[in-house]
Amino acid sequence: WLLFSGNGGPQASVSNLWDQGGFLPHGFTGLVMMMAIIMFSFGGLELVGITAAEADNPEQSITKATNQGIYRILIFYIGSLAVLLSLMPTSTSLPYSATTRRWSV
């Protein structure tokens, strides 16, 4: 909403995803650290195996739950990262809200 409504600030643009070095401007270290958090957050996916013992059709329910987990990671994590990276370029040193309110950061 912020990106397409124009309320994200003057620097909000989809081109922020590939300008100033792209998605990983400082290498894969940030990606590796992010994946550790994502794996921890979706650690509850092992409950699918526990649920399978109680399901009527475990073959179908496990497949469906696993696929939904993958799609949710893509939508919620990768999608939200794309939106946030579109709002501000990676070279921005100050938060936009701090500069508009004249806070000292």
From TrEMBL:
Entry's Gene Ontology BP terms: amino acid transport; transmembrane transport
- UniProt keyword annotation of Nucleotide-binding present: no
Q: Where is the Amino acid permease/ SLC12A domain?
A: 2-93
Pfam families, per the entry? AA_permease
Q: Which UniProt keywords apply?
A: Amino-acid transport, Cell membrane, Membrane, Transmembrane, Transmembrane helix, Transport
> Which residue spans traverse the membrane?
27-48, 69-88
Stated membrane topology is: Multi-pass membrane protein
Q: Which GO terms describe its cellular component?
A: plasma membrane
Cellular localization per UniProt: Cell membrane
Is tRNA processing found in the keyword set? no
UniProt name for this protein? Aromatic amino acid transport protein AroP
- Organism of origin is human gut metagenome
